[in-house]
Write a structure and sequence with these properties.
The chain has about 280 residues and is an alpha+beta fold. Helix content is about 20%, strand content about 20%. The protein has a single domain, classed as q2cbj1_9rhob like domain (Jelly Rolls, Sandwich), CATH 2.60.120.620. The strands form three sheets. Strands 1-2-10-5-12-4-3 form a seven-stranded mixed β-sheet. A three-stranded antiparallel β-sheet has the order 9-6-11, with no helix packed on it. A two-stranded antiparallel ribbon has the order 7-8. The radius of gyration is 18 Å and the shape is globular.
């Protein structure tokens, strides 16, 4: 438990953003209803495990979920969510930036502590080097089962987004600065336990929106149930990205099939080519 409030109603986005900027994360209560929660869960199953053969203790990702999920686009028509998006970016002139869905099964262990932010990479090697270099919030996630340390979900390190943060007490950042490890540990891998100063296991309900800043360090907690999560994020159109990959057919198909009033969000969209790697 914290001695500050991290929970806000969807009509109090200004206060939520103060918390996000101060502590690096916040939870906006009841952003979507149970009907949409169920639709999104069904869409994740259809995209990632239609045969229900995902083994225990494993996961699957879709890194351009908006290209295959019609229910996800309901968020772009959902006034409370878009009010949050517009206030985060301080503009309504936005385009689709990224989207994703993650499915985990019971028995998957805790993940590695990490930050999504890559900073300014002079020679990008993978897609995240291209897309995760901005100060926009990295976390705009719906944990569709909710989040709780006894079941599954996400944990964050409070204030790890602040300038000059050098890792929790007793730890040091890895050379890439995208994770951390115990001082004196020469392993290149990041830490994967909850006994970290500043660790906050996020507790939320299925329709809540979990937000965290671009630099906030976070990790998936051990998964004790089939766990669904997804998100769709936007960026100001003034933030222009020249992606080094071709727009895939799935993105073109999405653009063709979208309702006309969503077309504005496609101008500037890069999609995500998980197979792209820089030439040696």
């Amino acid at each position: 438990m914290t001695d500050y409030n991290v929970y806000f109603e969807k009509d109090d986005i200004d206060s939520a953003l103060v918390c996000l900027n101060t502590y690096g994360y916040c939870v906006i209560r009841k952003m979507i209803n149970q009907d949409l929660v169920n639709e999104l869960k069904d869409s994740i199953d259809e995209s990632l495990d239609s045969e229900r053969n995902l083994p225990p203790g494993s996961n699957r990702y879709h890194m351009a979920f908006a290209e295959v999920s019609k229910p996800l686009w309901k968020l772009a028509d959902h006034a409370p969510y878009m009010n949050y998006v517009h206030k985060v970016h301080k503009t309504q002139d936005i385009c689709l930036h990224r989207s994703a869905a993650i499915l985990r099964t019971k028995g998957e262990p805790m993940g590695m502590w990490h930050t999504d932010h890559r900073g300014i990479v002079e020679k990008p090697l993978v897609p995240n080097d291209v897309l995760n270099r901005f100060t926009m919030p990295s976390g705009n996630w719906f944990y569709l089962n909710g989040s709780h340390p006894e079941r599954s979900g996400i944990a964050v390190i409070e204030k790890s987004h602040l300038p000059g943060w050098q890792g929790p007490e007793g730890f040091e950042l890895t050379p890439s600065q995208t994770s951390f490890r115990r001082q004196g540990d020469s392993s290149p891998a990041g830490y994967q336990k909850m006994d970290v100063p500043g660790c906050i296991p996020v507790i939320s309900d299925p329709g809540d929106l979990i937000c965290f800043a671009a630099l906030t360090y976070h990790a998936n907690m051990a998964t004790n149930e089939r766990r669904y999560s997804c998100g769709i994020s936007f960026r100001p159109k003034t933030v222009q990205i020249k992606a080094p990959w071709e727009l895939p057919e799935s993105a073109k198909k999405m653009s063709h099939e979208l309702s006309d009033h969503f077309k504005t969000y496609i101008d500037g969209y890069t999609s995500y080519d998980e197979n792209w790697k820089a030439e040696a």
